[in-house]
Amino acid sequence: MQPTATVLVYSDDANTREQVRLAAGRRPAADVPPVEFVECATLPAVLTALDNGGIDVCVLDGETAPAGGMGVCRQIKDEIFRCPPVLLLIGRPQDAWLATWSRADAAVTLPVEPVEFADALAALLRSRLCVQS
Fold first, then answer.
1. What is the 3-state secondary structure of 107-133?
2. Which residues lie below 8 Å from residue 81, measured CB to CB, with a gap of 6+?
3. Could you give the residue ranges of the DSSP H alpha helices within 3-113?
4. Which of 4, 82, 15, 75 is nearest to 46 (CA)?
């Protein structure tokens, strides 16, 4: 198992980024490595972090403005070679079809529910780390 996994968190709201960090904890499940976070509040910061490499999973806030997480997800799936899996934070359950349109790998609703979020994040980490092995 690798020593840590890197999770990019994109939201213009510092409280949302904090909710994500707290819900994930240091390790979202016993069978995945501890996580480190790269926080981004703007689309250029997301693109720079992904270009630099080393991101294992992206968590994107669908409610971020002006570049919402759904559009950012679709963009990075088109533009980033071997794009990491994306966990999309959506405002309401009815927006799940938009998460599908954006090609997100998973979606959870806001506000972040810790157990649901940690389970979704751990599943994406398992899939990413299994593929990289």
1. EEECCCCHHHHHHHHHHHHHHHHHHHC
2. none
3. 14-24, 43-52, 69-79, 96-101
4. 75
Is 6:50 a contact under the CB 8 Å cutoff?
A: no
Q: Is there a contact between 90 and 62 (Cβ–Cβ < 8 Å)?
A: yes
Residue 48 CB coordination number (10 Å): 12
Nearest residue to 12 (alpha-carbon basis) of 40, 44, 47 = 40
Q: What is the pLDDT of residues 21-69, one digit of tens each?
A: 999 999 999 999 999 999 999 999 999 999 999 999 999 999 999 999 9
Tell me 16's DSSP state: H
The strand order across the sheet containing 35-40 reads: 35-40, 5-10, 57-61, 86-90, 106-109
Looking at residue 132, its pLDDT comes to 62
Q: What SS3 string covers 82-114?
A: CCCCEEEEECCHHHHHHHHHCCCCEEEECCCCH
